[in-house]
Specification:
It is a single chain. This protein is of the alpha/beta class. Helices cover 50% and strands 12% of the residues. The protein has 2 domains: 343 residues, P-loop containing nucleotide triphosphate hydrolases (Rossmann fold, 3-Layer(aba) Sandwich), CATH 3.40.50; 196 residues, Helix Hairpins (Orthogonal Bundle), CATH 1.10.287.620. It is built from 12 helices and 16 strands. The strands form 4 sheets. Strands 2-1-4-5-6-7 form a 6-stranded antiparallel beta sheet. Strands 10-14-15-3-16 form a 5-stranded parallel beta sheet, with helices on both faces. A 3-stranded antiparallel beta sheet has the order 11-12-13, covered by helices on one side. A hairpin with a 5-residue loop joins strand 5 and strand 6. The longest helix has 100 residues.
Length: 619
């Protein structure tokens, strides 16, 4: 029987009063990219939240106001579908049959516990693990062969990778917590072999470990001293972890307010730019019209001159004809024939009076045309005055827009600098807190060794089979080669570090951009291995900013100037066996991104594309 896999189908924030915020996911490759503060982090946070997270709530952001419930649509490889629902404030889950973005009418969901299940109600972890065949799996957690149960939360970090985790200087299969190394190795062994540690029996400590007890205590004391020295170098003598956490919370809130102000200011500038473009377009249209009017008036003035000339000519004819009719002449006034030649067959039969009348009629027509033309010229001159006024107004509006942009630009730069400084301060405080937590963890470990009774035990092997690691390394190498990552001719797995070595250099020894892309390769390599071997797995991979080298290149970076990003996306586009959802910033995206099928671009613009994950509130 083939192992079941999960495919994420949609994530939706529901509101009784607002437009829902929804994004759909396809099988295979999905790319979501765009500028900061457009909702990418909210989608990541919400997916993690909907997959059983109970240690912390959703991040509080202004866009959440008005939404009350989140829906996560799931499809399984047997074709069945379910939707998980959960209050935006946390708590237990609801389970619906089928895919829904809101609670279906007349349907009562099945309840799933967020944490520990009860006799009557199972947990969301139990439900999901049952679906993929990893329910009730036991993992060895220490040298005493004590075990803990696999949960969806302990499995998820292998396939759901945040921007922070993807660049860490540790193995993608490790959390960095020393006390978790045993169970994390057991977790990897379970996935690669399909065999858990249920058969292990709790045993006594062996004599060799008893002898090394003092050595381990000494090592921990040295590590505690090293961490303490690092803390003293970055924190005041009396500073406590609680004070730092309080400081971090204040910085986070200040940073959120600063980002809100920055986002509002950026929106103001964008709106002014759009208004300026509109005024500039109107100005150019008015300028073209004014030019057209001037050209027409010049042509019409020339035509008036012709009309005046014609009137002079016709007036002369009329006056001459009137004089001629009064004259007595022996010769014909029109053709000059002598009187004796003016018989019945005289060819010139014209009468002077008829010529005068014809000239008068023609003169009347020309006068009428002249009057019409004068009226037209007057109307054009009036229109020219109106257009000239509008032209001046539009010019003034463009100048005002430029002035407003100039006035806002320093504030924009100031807020950006302030946000960057706050972020750096918050990161520095977080690093110091991490040092305090690391010291506490080491002290707890030391206390546990000091307080634990000495007893013999029979140790059990907890290694991952070499053949499995060899195959996994081969898949990672294949991915890196297809992406054209430099210096990946030789790739092998280091069982002790539970990480890969590239051309003799440990993966974590490279810069953060290199670590990010190789972390992605190990995550995808593991997913491909499990899929090819038909072993139980989640079935999807979520990667946040794997192409960090393009966003924040290192000094010795060898990636950002290559086309690795295009090869990376091409490889994912043509691989449909594992659903992969990638979140990236705009700098990492190749120019021909439109060729990929399942791409969502958050433009942060009201005038084109999708602004962001959450609908834009009307002004």
């Amino acid at each position: 029987m083939s192992a079941q896999k999960i495919t994420l189908r949609h994530l939706s924030f529901h509101s009784p009063h607002k437009e829902p915020a929804t994004i759909e996911f396809s099988s295979g490759f999905n790319l979501i990219y765009g500028a900061s503060n457009t909702g990418k982090s909210s989608i990541l946070d919400a997916i993690d939240f909907m997959l059983g997270r109970s240690s912390r709530k959703l991040k509080e952001i202004p866009q959440h106001i008005g939404y009350d419930e989140i829906f996560l649509g799931l499809e399984f490889s047997d074709g069945s579908t379910n939707t998980l629902s959960r209050s935006i404030d946390g708590g237990d889950f609801g389970l619906f049959v089928g895919l829904h973005t809101e609670t279906p009418d007349g349907v009562e969901p099945l309840t799933l516990k967020a944490k520990q299940p009860t006799k009557k109600v199972e947990s969301v972890s139990q439900f999901l693990l049952k679906k993929i065949g990893l329910h009730d799996k036991q993992l060895k957690k220490n040298a005493d062969n004590q075990k803990e149960r696999l949960t969806i939360r302990s499995l998820l970090p292998l396939f759901f990778v945040t921007e922070t985790d993807i660049q860490k200087e540790i193995s993608p299969f490790r959390s960095g917590q020393f006390t978790k190394e045993t169970v994390e190795t057991a977790r990897l062994k379970l996935l690669l072999t399909g065999i858990d540690d249920s058969a292990l029996k709790t045993s006594e400590k062996n004599e060799r470990e008893a002898i090394s007890r003092t050595a381990r205590m000494g090592m921990l004391q040295e590590l505690i001293q090293e961490v303490s020295e690092k803390i003293e170098a970055v924190a005041a003598e009396e500073t406590s972890k609680e004070e730092l956490e309080d400081q971090e919370n204040r910085l986070i809130k200040t940073l959120e307010r600063s980002n809100e102000l920055l986002s509002g200011l950026e929106q103001d500038v964008l709106q002014i730019v759009e208004e300026k473009q509109s005024h500039q377009t109107d100005y150019e249209q008015n300028l073209r019209r004014l030019t057209e009017i001037k050209e027409m008036i010049e042509r019409f003035d020339k035509l008036l001159l012709h009309y005046a000339s014609d009137q002079d000519r016709l007036t002369g004819i009329i006056e001459a004809g009137s004089l001629i009719s009064e004259l007595e002449s022996e010769t014909c006034p029109l053709c000059g024939a002598a009187k004796e030649d003016q018989g019945f067959d005289h060819a010139c039969n014209a009468e002077t009076e008829e010529v005068v009348e014809s000239a008068k009629a023609e003169l009347g027509k020309i006068v009428k045309l002249e009057n019409d033309l004068i009226n037209t010229i007057d109307q054009l001159k009036l229109e020219a005055e109106d257009v000239g006024v509008s032209l001046a107004n539009k010019r003034e509006l463009v100048l005002r827009s430029n002035q407003r942009i100039s006035e806002l630009t320093p504030d924009l730069a100031q807020y950006r600098t302030r946000s960057a400084e706050l972020h750096q301060k918050q990161a520095a405080v977080r690093r110091t807190i991490d040092l305090f937590e690391a010291r506490e963890e080491l002290e707890d470990k030391l206390n546990a060794i000091e307080e634990a009774p000495e007893k013999l035990e029979e140790a059990s092997d907890n290694r991952v089979p070499t053949s499995s690691l060899f195959e996994l390394a081969d898949r990672v190498k294949s991915l890196l080669n297809s992406w054209h990552l430099p210096n990946t001719d030789q790739v092998h797995f280091d069982p002790e570090a539970v990480d890969i070595v590239l051309n003799g250099k440990h993966r974590i020894s490279n810069g953060k951009g290199h670590r990010s892309i190789t972390h992605a390769a190990m995550t995808l390599g593991l997913a491909n291995y499990l899929n090819d071997k038909d072993l139980p797995t989640l079935g999807f991979v979520v990667l946040d900013s794997p192409l960090l080298a393009y966003e924040e290149p290192d000094e010795d970076d060898e990636i950002s100037e290559t086309h690795l990003n295009r090869h990376f996306f091409d490889g994912l586009e043509f691989s449909n066996d594992v659903q992969t959802i990638v979140f990236e910033n705009k700098k990492s995206i190749p120019d021909d991104v439109e060729k990929y099928k399942n791409v969502t671009h958050f433009t942060k613009s009201r005038s084109f594309g999708r602004y962001g994950f959450f609908p834009v509130e009307p002004d």
